[in-house]
Design a protein that fits this description.
Order of helices and strands: HHHHHH
Distance between the termini: 62 Å
Helix content: 55-70%
Low-confidence stretches: none
Number of strands: 0
Radius of gyration: 21 Å
Length: about 150
């Protein structure tokens, strides 16, 4: 049942992206191009998504389990730190250069859009590099350091 509901939610999300034409990079770039013929339609899509999210989070915050019976896991971190800001900047630059963000890119990939293939491959490569760097940082943070040197003296 869980997989079926996840599929349905993703399907509805994808249909919404297609209907709103947010899978078209030119549409997104039209919103981001403030100096050219600005297209405000993405702002309306975002406003609708924020309105739905506010209601959904208000309902979810009062629950211990989801409607499917799994534990409710909402984000716990509330502070804005350097990693969040840098990640947001990288996301925004990628979005502005390509006209895609992950959700619409996957929908466009399913539609066979060549630009989406390049974006998704680059996105997966970026995720793999991130995981590799995170593991390396975790290993160096956990590894005990022998300050006395190899002889122990």
């Amino acid at each position: 049942m869980y997989i079926l509901c996840a599929f349905y939610a993703g399907f509805v999300f994808g249909i919404g992206l297609i209907v709103s034409r947010m899978v078209n990079p030119a549409k997104v770039l039209g919103f981001l191009d403030l100096a050219g013929p600005w297209d405000p339609s993405l702002a309306l899509v975002m406003a609708g998504a924020i309105a739905v999210s506010v209601v959904a989070y208000a309902v979810a915050a009062r629950r211990a389990v989801t409607w499917l019976g799994t534990p409710m896991r909402l984000p716990e971190m509330r502070e804005i730190d350097r990693r969040l800001v840098l990640g947001s900047v990288v996301f925004g630059v990628g979005w502005g250069l390509a006209g895609f963000c992950p959700g619409p890119a996957l929908v466009a990939l399913g539609a066979g859009e060549p630009q989406a293939v390049v974006f998704v491959v680059a996105m997966i490569a970026g995720m793999l590099v991130f995981e590799l760097v995170e593991r390396m940082l975790a290993e160096t943070a956990v590894a005990p350091r022998d300050e006395a040197g190899p002889s122990g003296a």
